[in-house]
Amino acid sequence: MAYYPSWISNVFPPEQIDFSLFDWVDFAFAMPDASFALDWDGSDRAPDILSRLVTVAHQQGKKVKLSVGGWGGSKWFSRAVATHFSRQTFVNNIAVTYSQYRLDGIDLDWEYPGQQGESQNYVDPSDTANFLDFLKLLRDTLPPLARISAAVQTSPFSGANGQPLDDVRAFADVLDWVTLMNYDTWGASPNPGPNAPLNDACRNSTQPAVSADAAIRSWTAAGFPPDQLVLGVPSYGYVSHSSTTRLRQRDENQLPPGSIVHVMTDEGADTGEVQFRELVRQGVLCRDPTRHGVYTGCGGFTREWDACSSTPFLHSSAVDQVITYDDGQSLGLKAEYARQGGLLGINIFDLHGDTGQWELVNSLRQGLGL
């Protein structure tokens, strides 16, 4: 599985996707507006791009879900699910879009029910309970074969008391799966940490509850079946202005955010983000001629391996930069971990961050035993 954001279409049209590598592609994003209709995020051409994506996917026997929300598209979610009337209106609008674009499913990426994501978002203590009522109505309204998923935090949905629910079995009854967004654990910082840790192997993380391992344990402990969990992984990392040669540990003081140095970002990307393919294109990573699909640091950067999180990072003393990211090695380990844990699969955000040879995706597939 992979996300396809609308804003990448100018440089990576949907016709360039190798659908033999994916079962599902999530088109990102539509978002609820103040009247609980669906608006489009990222491009005025989004409806046309979605139509093309569905056409080419169906031609190759693959399926497309529309992802609703996202970090910048969750402002009105709370209001859209707050009452029976608003839920019915929102569901009806989703159903119309589902039919209009010949979709195979809907992905709900509300960031986050009962918690403040972006500062403009509306939040209510009843968000999670209302979200469940909305999902039940959506399930009853969409065709029986429609798939409904949700992109979620590494901890279960927030209850009315602000704490993660200890029982989410009711959500498992109406969702086909959830994608655990195990990325953005640390962004750009003078004291950087891993973007997407596999685990807290050294037991010294400043955020021990945020990793692939912790996410799987949290959701399954709350009653969500492993075979309805999908592990979300990134094809991007973060560039930090820092002279450190190791990643953040619990016994170190956390520093306030500092200056962020750009390597390069795509339209729609957040400040400080850099995609794996850009690290390769700009000569920060170079292929190891002795090992297929393996990259080493170059251009003044040294590649290191953080055994505590099972992720790589690059550092350069010449320019005081540290780049935390994932590569074929770390993603392969995550995929293998997901397979051994009986998870449904992997979803990468996003597919355009990979190289032209699909090296990240192929590493994921290998880890999954495909």
Structural summary, described in words:
The chain has 370 residues and is an alpha/beta fold. It folds into 2 domains: 2-234 and 327-368, Glycosidases (TIM Barrel, Alpha-Beta Barrel), CATH 3.20.20; 239-324, no CATH class. The chain has 9 helices and 16 strands. Strands 1, 2, 3, 4, 5, 6, 7, 8 and 16 form a 9-stranded mixed beta sheet that branches. It has a 5-stranded antiparallel beta sheet with strand order 10-9-15-14-13. A two-stranded antiparallel sheet has the order 11-12. Helix 6 (212-221) links the parallel strand 7 (177-181) and strand 8. Helix 8 packs parallel to helix 9 (359-368).
Would you tell me which CATH topology of the largest domain applies? TIM Barrel
Number of spatially distinct domains: 2
CATH domain class of the largest domain: Alpha Beta
Query: What's the end-to-end separation, in Å?
Result: 13 Å
Helical proportion, percent range: 25-40%
The largest pleated sheet is described as: 9 strands, mixed
Q: Whole-number radius of gyration?
A: 20 Å
Determine the strand fraction and express it as a percent band.
15-25%
Q: Any idea what the CATH architecture of the largest domain is?
A: Alpha-Beta Barrel
Question: Average pLDDT, to the nearest integer?
Answer: 91
Q: List the total number of helices.
A: 9
- Secondary structure tally: strands: 16
How would you describe the shape?
globular
Classify the secondary structure makeup into a structural class: alpha/beta
